[in-house]
Design goal:
about 450 residues, about 0% strand, 16 helices
């Protein structure tokens, strides 16, 4: 696979040959259409608008171990199609893959399968992640960050419109009265499986379309942003609703600071401190927050779920349970030995993305996660923003910030083929490619001067 366009310290050398031939450029819209269809199929899923109760939703998560023939054909088919486009490509690639910590993390995940309770299930879940990441970054090599961004915006807006149109057409666009979790009843979900998924995707649509409006001043982006926010309110998704305006405000300030590295550094530090404060306040005031936002008799508290994972880590502090090998791995799931409430038999993840990686892949996995998805992107956002790429980087920064915060209360890192995870991967790809394209001062090594014989130093 050729993923070229090297990163130069300083001005890239002049390329001869002019623009790509028209015949070669004709491949670009084909690749863009393929990536758009991939995103839409990920967003819509296999059974849109299906009526499911909570137990069926969790059972579907439990069976999502990579054994579904349709999903296998889906992912392998798109990977092969994009690979074919890469092989016949005759224009210069838009990106060279140099995101090595991500590959190192995937390698560790594969190693962790060896001590999982069901190594084959863990292996299939890792390979699903490998293919999703391969599709994302190969699409980036074919399209470049600008087209990946436009394709992502188009898919988000399409999903928004379908969700709104579905509300008066089908009752399954709203969680039905038959839900076992009574807090879900009446919450909007559109074609998504669950209102929390709908809330997160629509919150990201709200922020991304708002930034598109800031750049283009086109009225319909403002309309899409308002529609997305109203839909978030309808989902009753507490985490997404709380983050909407906060992330929009932070990313808007970041956008205004595109020429100041020092001020962006302060902003990034505040984002990090805000994550710690957000989590601390949630733990300290959890009963009050639950009374505000939901029926406390129906709300399944996250702190009790976190305790399951923490108790396991107390007994297995170094290696974890193997990638994807803690929850919903059958009757032998390691989590079953540490449950403290009956409802946790139906729990599919740790409701904290960082804790989920720690309990499944150990401290090594968590360190690699923080390096790959927190430290490195923070550096890209700190040093890689210019007036020319401000829209791309501000939108990617908004998605990145949202997902970092969301994973304090939900799990979306490496969450199979879920929508928020794929959107996050797209934002990481956009940020890395935009960062690499920025010209930087060339580093020169100064040679020591040789003094003439007899001249004192």
């Amino acid at each position: 696979m050729s993923l070229a366009l090297p990163w130069y310290r300083g001005r890239a050398p002049h390329r001869t040959g002019g623009a790509a031939p028209a015949r070669a450029e004709a491949l670009i819209p084909i690749a863009q259409a393929v990536y758009y269809i991939f995103l839409m199929l990920i967003f819509i899923g296999q059974q849109p608008f299906s009526s499911r109760n909570q137990e069926q939703l969790v059972a579907m998560a439990a069976n999502n171990d990579g054994s579904d023939p349709f999903k296998q054909a889906f992912f392998i088919g798109f990977a092969m199609l994009l690979t074919l486009l890469e092989l016949v490509r005759r224009y210069r690639p838009q990106y060279r893959f140099t995101y090595w910590p991500l590959l190192l993390m995937l390698g560790w995940f594969l190693i962790s399968c060896a001590w999982g309770i069901d190594p084959f299930v863990s292996f299939k879940r890792v390979m699903q992640q490998v293919i999703v990441i391969y599709i994302t970054f190969l699409s980036l090599a074919l399209l470049g960050p600008e087209r990946i961004y436009r394709t992502l915006v188009a898919a988000l807006v399409t999903s928004l419109l379908i969700c709104w149109i579905s509300l008066p057409i089908t009752p399954n666009a709203v969680h039905p009265p038959t839900e076992s979790d009574k807090a879900l009843i009446g919450a909007w979900r559109g074609f998504f499986f669950h209102k929390n998924i709908a809330g997160a995707v629509m919150a990201l649509t709200f922020v991304v379309t708002a930034h598109a409006y800031f750049t283009s001043k086109k009225w319909y982006y403002a309309l899409f942003s308002v529609m997305a926010f109203i839909f978030v309110v309808g989902t009753k998704s507490k985490t997404s609703l709380a983050l909407c305006f906060a992330i929009l405000a932070v990313s808007s300030v970041y956008r205004l600071l595109s020429q100041s590295v020092a001020k962006r550094a302060v902003l990034l530090l505040l984002v990090g401190l805000g994550m710690l404060l957000f989590l601390a306040l949630y733990i300290a005031f959890q009963p009050l927050i639950e009374r505000w936002f939901a029926d406390p008799t129906a709300f399944t508290g996250r702190v009790s779920i976190w305790r399951v994972a923490i108790d396991y880590l107390a007994d297995h502090p170094w290696l974890g349970a193997g990638f994807g090998g803690f929850w919903q791995v059958g009757d032998l799931s390691p989590s079953h030995q540490y449950l403290n409430q009956q409802f946790q038999l139906l729990t599919a993840h740790s409701h904290n993305g960082y804790l989920e990686i720690l309990v499944t892949t150990g401290p090594v996995g968590l360190v690699l996660l923080l390096l790959s998805f927190v430290a490195l992107p923070a550096y890209w956002f700190l040093t890689g923003t210019t007036k020319q790429n401000a829209t791309l980087m501000a939108s990617a920064f908004a998605i990145w910030s949202f997902v970092l915060y969301q994973n304090l209360l939900e799990t979306s890192f490496f969450d199979k083929d879920r929508q928020v995870w794929v959107i996050f991967l797209s934002s990481i790809a956009i940020a890395h490619a935009s960062f690499k394209a920025v010209e930087r001062p060339r580093w020169h090594r100064q040679r020591a001067r040789t003094l003439p014989t007899g001249v004192p130093a």
